[in-house]
Design goal:
By secondary structure, this protein is an alpha/beta fold. 38% of the residues lie in helices and 14% in strands.
Length: 409
């Protein structure tokens, strides 16, 4: 058997996943964000949605424009929309035929739903042995909680994140984004890429089981080990990490909030000099990491009393001059105006059919030879149904008319 011809970066002009076909059956965030990541890097992502209503994400978001979601164009970018009523057997058969001609299938329904529809992995892999099936759920596909409905908030709580976020004198707040869903989707995408790598060697696909709570748990550093070995339970500490000082948010004269981090001994000495108190750099109360941790509260008060005497801009300039890590707490307006964001094109503009040029976060991470691209914002519901069913399954106009009359698409 002769080796496959070597491919060059030119073969992947639309991204490193060019040539992969992904069927996305998920809804809301955890499944669709996984699909977004794959689409960002060149995969053909075909999103299957229920007719007439579509993915609820089409209506989500805190702010709408002209009655339309501003989140949907982002999470559904680079995707094709096909409508299929998966509650009906003929539509399930069409889905199986599409999956048989695809590389990856993503779903984030409650465990058991795909089996009920005849779209279980045993059935699908018999049709397509190389299929990688990515399954995202609250609690995973096994275990006593598997069939419970699970959303990102529950994953964040069960995985340990929710308890340690916020101030110690009040209940844990919610992080202002759906971090649990996005973490699960990111791990699901990573698992899918690893499974595809194995498929290159074996020819066989497999199931990627990504649980929301486990994705959050994976980010919890040494939290479990600290309890196991030392009986230590992490508590909420507000804007600081206990024992890591100084590293917090400090006020300014013009009402800004500035991050300053001087928790390394050499950096602390530079910060003390910037504050006009170089003698504090060698003061036994602050000279070492442990000493600063023990005196964290008084140190933060002292730095705050200094920082509030200056506006943010000259404060940041002074900290830069002394090579002390610092930064503003950015909001969207800050991101749009920042020279570093602009230089790296961290935010890009993509043409939306209704809104015109629309700003959104660019593709990350950056690949030097085969970078990803954003070719289009989220599609209209069913925009690609005819195209996909004709090109992939060979349906003609008569067949499509029959499906539409039966309300299958």
């Amino acid at each position: 058997m002769s080796p496959a011809p070597t491919k060059t970066a030119a073969d992947f002009k639309n991204g490193p996943l060019t040539g992969l076909r992904v069927i996305e059956m998920g809804q809301l965030i955890a499944g669709p964000f996984c699909g977004q990541l794959m689409g960002d890097f060149g995969a053909e992502v075909i999103k299957i949605e229920p007719p007439n209503q579509g993915d609820p994400m089409r209506n989500w978001g805190q702010v709408k424009k002209e009655g339309r979601s501003l989140w949907w164009p982002v999470i559904a970018r680079n995707k094709k929309s096909v409508t299929l009523d998966l509650r009906q057997k003929e539509a399930q058969a069409i889905a199986r035929d599409l999956i048989a001609k695809s590389d990856v299938m993503i779903e984030n329904f409650r465990p058991g739903t795909m089996e009920k529809w005849g779209l279980d992995y045993a059935t699908l892999s018999a049709l397509n042995p190389g299929l990688v099936m990515i399954r995202v759920s609250g609690y995973g596909q096994t275990g006593p909680y598997a069939e419970r409905p699970g959303y990102g908030a529950m994953g964040e709580a069960m995985g340990g994140m929710r308890y340690v976020v916020g101030d110690p004198d009040r209940p844990p707040p919610r992080v202002g984004i759906s971090i649990g869903d996005s973490l699960a989707a990111t791990y699901a995408c990573l698992g899918g890429i690893m499974a595809l790598y194995v498929r290159e060697k074996t020819g066989h696909g497999q199931v990627v089981d990504a649980a929301l709570y486990e994705a959050v748990l994976a980010m919890m550093e040494s939290l479990v080990s600290e309890y196991d070995q030392a009986g230590y339970v992490r508590e909420r500490t507000g804007p600081i990490l206990k024992g890591l000082a100084p590293a917090s948010i400090y006020p300014t004269k013009d009402g800004q909030l500035v991050l300053i981090s001087g928790n390394q001994d050499t950096i602390w000495k530079r910060l003390a000099t910037a504050m006009g108190k170089p003698e504090l750099g060698s003061d036994p109360r602050y000279a070492t990491h442990n000493a600063r941790g023990e005196n964290q509260d008084e140190l933060d008060i002292m730095i705050g009393e200094w920082s509030i005497t200056m506006d943010a801009a000259p404060l940041l300039e002074l900290l830069d001059k002394h090579d002390v890590p610092n930064g503003k707490t950015y909001r969207a307006p800050d991101m749009m105006e920042d020279i570093h964001f602009k230089a790296r094109e961290s935010i890009t503009k993509v043409m939306h059919p209704l809104f015109g040029p629309m700003a959104m976060q660019n593709v990350t991470p950056r690949l030097s030879d085969t970078p990803g691209h954003i070719n289009a914002t989220g599609p209209e519901l069913g925009q690609h149904t005819d195209e996909v069913l004709k090109q992939i399954l060979g349906f003609d106009d008569a067949k499509l008319a029959q499906l539409k009359a039966a309300k299958l698409v």
